[in-house]
């Protein structure tokens, strides 16, 4: 597992060398009188991960991001499982998290703007085009995930949610964020078979819970591929490269998307008495405290996710997430007594093999010679911008 993480992190750094080479080619053409093409955000991101050409600092940077992301994500998973088991109303709980995240993000932005310049604001038109799909899919993803925790164990939830990489690969190909390679097919096949074996004749399997998790996984695919496209855009007017700006702009759309689900599935229970009941005892302050605490944890985790995304890609973020889920499985097995049969364990091994193939493929793609000339990377046009994103995404 440690070798897989090193492979993924090192691969990110090798992409920086080629990004710097393209930047040098841009400068050379500018000196000859050719108008240089605007540098894409993903190029700047990779350059920042490797300052002064040294990969060690960039490797440390991404490693620290992962170490920040893991405890927040694992902790929130167990916290939500514990809280929902004692409280119920998972969609109401998630809605409370959304309002908490938005309030915290607004306060942080206000504090930053007191000492720095005004942060970016997007128009409603740009938000409808780029951020509404992210917010809606994120809301469906998180809402269904929390709902599923009522029906399935953490072990089944974490592994079923790992199928999100299949959807991320599909949407990455569709949006030209990733190029087709045979290794992608091998990776997807290994993970799909592994997930099938993991749920094969599982005594803990609940079909409704599994369906909810898979719908959440599909929403994850749309969410992170479109987020990558937005955060790595070269359009200065619509790019949101800072995690705080993404959280602030996406949260309102997440709230709008979750409210219909909340009123359809839990509307009949939403009375003042019920929403403040915890363990059959009326405890309003205790309930508010627990929901706000979960919202703060969710805010910090979402910030760490976007931070990783802007420096890597949706696929690599998902790979790190699956490694995290393996840790969650082991912890759940130890704490909750979740049962894993030999078939389930074999399925888990196949999933890990798929992750390893992905990491090895990325490392190989960085050592293979490139055939593209520098001038081909400097032309204008929207299709060429997508090509740049496609090339850069291979270093993830």
Automatic annotation (TrEMBL):
Chain positions covered by the region annotation Disordered: 363-383
Topology within the bilayer: Multi-pass membrane protein
Subcellular location per the Swiss-Prot or TrEMBL entry: Membrane
Biased composition regions of type Polar residues, renumbered to the chain: 368-381
Transmembrane segments: 58-79, 154-177, 184-202, 208-226, 246-265, 285-301, 306-323, 343-360
Protein keywords: Membrane, Transmembrane, Transmembrane helix
A Pfam family matched in the record: TPT
Ranges for domain Sugar phosphate transporter: 60-356
GO cellular component: membrane
First and last residue of the signal peptide: none
Superkingdom of origin organism: Eukaryota
SUPFAM superfamilies: Multidrug resistance efflux transporter EmrE
Protein's name in the database: TPT domain-containing protein
């Amino acid at each position: 597992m440690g070798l897989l993480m090193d492979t993924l992190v090192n691969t990110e750094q090798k992409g920086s060398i080629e990004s710097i080479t393209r930047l040098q080619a841009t400068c050379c053409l500018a000196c000859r009188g050719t108008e240089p093409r605007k540098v894409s955000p993903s190029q700047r991101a990779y350059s920042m991960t490797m300052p002064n050409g040294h990969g060690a600092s960039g490797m440390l940077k991404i490693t620290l991001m992962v170490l920040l992301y893991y405890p927040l994500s694992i902790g929130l998973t167990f916290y939500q499982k514990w809280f929902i088991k004692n409280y119920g109303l998972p969609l109401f709980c998630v809605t409370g998290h959304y309002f908490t995240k938005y309030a915290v993000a607004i306060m942080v932005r206000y504090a930053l703007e007191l000492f720095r310049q005004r942060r970016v604001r997007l128009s409603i038109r740009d938000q409808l085009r780029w951020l509404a799909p992210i917010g809606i899919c994120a809301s469906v993803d998180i809402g269904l995930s929390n709902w599923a925790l009522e029906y399935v164990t953490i072990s089944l939830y974490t592994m079923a949610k790992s199928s999100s990489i299949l959807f991320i690969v599909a949407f990455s190909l569709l949006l030209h964020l990733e190029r087709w390679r045979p290794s992608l097919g091998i990776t997807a096949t290994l993970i799909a078979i592994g997930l099938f074996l993991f749920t094969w004749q599982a005594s803990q399997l609940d079909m409704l819970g599994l369906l909810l998790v898979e719908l959440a996984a599909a929403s994850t695919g749309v969410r992170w591929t479109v987020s990558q496209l937005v955060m790595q855009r070269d359009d200065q007017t619509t790019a949101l490269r800072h995690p705080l700006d993404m959280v602030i702009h996406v949260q309102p759309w997440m709230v709008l998307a979750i409210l219909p689900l909340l009123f359809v599935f839990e509307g009949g229970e939403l009375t003042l008495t019920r929403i403040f009941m915890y363990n059959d005892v009326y405890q309003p302050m205790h309930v508010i405290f627990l929901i706000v605490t979960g919202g703060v944890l969710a805010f910090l985790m979402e910030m760490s996710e976007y931070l990783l995304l802007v420096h890597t890609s949706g696929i690599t973020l998902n790979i790190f997430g699956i490694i995290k889920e393996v840790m969650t499985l082991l912890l759940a097995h130890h704490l909750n007594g979740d049962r894993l049969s030999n078939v389930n364990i074999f399925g888990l091994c196949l999933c890990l093999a798929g992750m390893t193939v992905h990491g090895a493929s990325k490392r190989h793609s960085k050592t293979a010679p490139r055939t593209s000339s520098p001038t081909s990377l400097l032309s204008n046009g929207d299709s060429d911008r997508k090509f740049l994103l496609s090339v850069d995404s291979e270093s993830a």
